[in-house]
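Anyone else keep sequences and C-alpha cells together like this?

Example one:
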Amino acid sequence: MPRIIRVNGRYRLRELVGQGAYGKVYRATDLASGEDVVVKMERIDVMPATLEHEYTILRQLEGLTGIPCAHWFGEENKFNALVLDCLGPSLDKFFNNNCTISAVTTVISQLLHRLQSIHARNFIHRDVKPSNALIGVGGLVYLIDFSVAMEYRNPKTRLPYPLRQHLPFVGTPTYASINSHLGYELSRRDDLESLAYTMIYLFRGSLPWETGPFTDILEQKRQVHELCPDLPNEIKLFMDYTRSLEFSSKPDYEYLHGLLKQLSARPSEESDIILDGNGCNTYLDWYVHVCYCILYDSHSPDLAQSLSDRATPKARKIAASHTHSMKHGRCTTRATRTAQIMGKTAQC
C-alpha cells in the first residue's frame, strides 16, 4: 500500500488498527476539529466495492442512535477511503469473559433497538456478532460494519423482496443463521438469530461451534439447547422465537424486549460491569466520567467536584483530564455529545 499520510487533505492517518484481505483500518485525526476518527481503506479495483456500498447504506441510516456517522467517502491515491466515528472496544474485547446477566441484557437490549431501527429503514445487517458491536461514550452500544447489509423490502410498497434459494453464504460462520448456512435469502429473522448467538456468547464466554468444519457448525447450531444446557430459559425462548419466524414475518420486538427484561430481573451475585469505551468498569467510575462532561459543559464545577470526592482514583484521573481539556475549550463538542447520548441511552 502506498504511503498515505492524509485523506481528503483533512484526516491525518496515525496507527493501523486492523486489516483484511483487501483493505486496512487506521485511527486518524480530523485536522479541522481535532477529534479522532477511523479511516477504512481498500483498493479501488476491489470488486464489489464494499466501502462505497457501506457508505451508501450509512447515509440512509443517518440519524439513528447507535449507528456510526460516515463523515466522508472518496478516492485517495488509488484507494477508496471511508471516514467514520472513532469508537471504543468491541464487545468481545471489552467483556473478556467477565459478563453478568445484567450486563448481557443491557448490551443485547441496545443491539435489539439498533436492529429494530435499521429494519424500520428497510435494511438488514447480515453480520451481527460481538466484534461488530462497539462501546461508545456513555455506554452507548454501536452496531458497525454494514459492508454486507442489504435492503430487504421495497421502500415504497414496504413489501419484502421474494425469497431466493441456493445463494452463497453470507456473514460469519460462528454467528450466522441456519438459513445462511442453507443458502436461503436472509431477512429480519436472521439478524435476530445472530443476535441470539451473540447473547449466548456473552453469557457463556464462548460458543461450542467456534472451530471445526462448516457442516459441523451447522449441525451444532441445530443442537444449541443440548450443547448449552446452562442457558437461562429466557435465552432459549429468544432463540426459539427467532427460528420460528417466516421469511417475511415482522418480528415481535416487544416480546423479545420483554424476555430481556425478565432475564435482567434475575438476581446476580457478581458486580455488574457498566459499559464505557473510555475504560471505566464500575458504576461510579462511569457515572463520574459522564457527569463531569455534562456538569462542566453546563458550568457547574462545584457539583462536579462534590461528585469527584466520592469517586475512585481512576475515575478522578479520567474526570480531571476531561476537566482540563474543557477549561481550555477543547472538549465542548465531546461534552455536548456525551450529554445528548446520555439522554438517548435513557430511552433505550
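And example two:
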Amino acid sequence: MATMTIDENDENAVYGWPKKKFKYQDREIETCGFLEKDSPSWPAFHIAFLLSSYVVPLILISVLYMWMLSRLWRSSVGGRSAESKKGKKRVTRLVVIVVAAFASLWFPIQVILVLKSVDVFVPNTHFKISLQIVSHVLAYTSSCINPLLYAFLSENFRKAFRKVTRHPVGLGSLCSQGTVIAPEDNFSLYQA
C-alpha cells in the first residue's frame, strides 16, 4: 500500500513545486509536481489533455485524409483502368491503417490518464504499473510506426526489399552490375 505526504515548505522544492513523498512497501520515493490547491483540477487537466492530444488530432487527420481520398477517387488521373483502381484501393487501405494505428496506439494511455485523474485507476500493483508502462510505450511507438507502415505497405518497397534480402549481405544489385564476390578474399569486392 502506498501513502503520500506533501511538504509544502521544503527548501529543495523545484520551481516552487514541493516534493511529494510516497511510501511504497519499505521504500520512500520522492517526486515533484503541481500543488493540488494551486493547480486546475486533475480531471479537467486530463480531459483537456485528452481532447487536445488525442480527440482533436484524430478528428483532424481523419477529416484531412478523407478529403484527400475523396479528391483521389474523384480525380481522372490514371483514368478508369483496373490498375488505377487498384492503386487507389492501396492508398485507401494505407490511409485507413495509418489512422487506425494512431487511434489504437494512443487510446490506452489516454484512458489510463483520465481514469487516474478521477481515482478509478490506481497504479498500486505490478500489473497496473506494467499496464501503464506498456500504454506509454504503445503511444511512443505511434511516433515511429508511420514510416514502417508506408514502407511495408508499398508494393515497390516490398519488391526491392525481397530483391536485396535474396542475396548475401544485400549485394544483389552489385552482382548484376558485374561486381564479383571473391570467397578467398573473405567476401571483399572487386570489379570484374
